[in-house]
Amino acid sequence: MAGSIVLELRxxxxxxxxxxxxxxxxxxxxxxxxxxxxxxxANTKGPDDELRVxxxxxxxxxxxxxxxxxEDWDAWNxxxxxxRDIGNATQRKYQGYIxxxxxxxxxxxxxxxxxxxLVGRRIVQFLDDxxxxxxxxxxxxxxxxxxxxxxxxxx
Length: 155
Description:
5 helices; single chain; mainly alpha; two-stranded antiparallel ribbon; two-stranded antiparallel sheet; 4 strands
C-alpha cells in the first residue's frame, strides 16, 4: 500500500503499520510457521500447501486461530465433505495441518505473549483424537497373499 510503513521486528518478521494488530499477528504466525516447516523438510512446496488449508479455516470461520473453537472446526469439516466432496484421506491430511499449526503456536512463547496482549488469553490446542477423522478401517492383512482374516492393526 502506498504510504504504509513496514517495521522490521527482531525475529525478522515484518508488520505494516496500517494493518490491524490481529491481522499483523496472523501474518507473522504464517511466516513463522512457513519457516519452521521449511526447516523441517526439503520440500518447500509443503508449507505453502499447509498454509492454504490453514487460511481456508481462517476464511471459512472469519476468525483468527486464537479465536477458533470446536464449532468452527465442525462447520469447516462439514463444509469440506458436503461442499467440496473431499475424501477421507484428504480430510485427515487437512486436519493434521490445522492441528500441527495450533501445536506450533502453542509452543512459541513470543506468539503466546502477543496473543495475551491482544486478547487477554493464550492459545491452546483445542483438538484431540476424537475431533479428528479416522481411517475407515483399522484392519490390515498380516501377510500379502495369505488367507488370514483381516486383523486390527494394533495386534
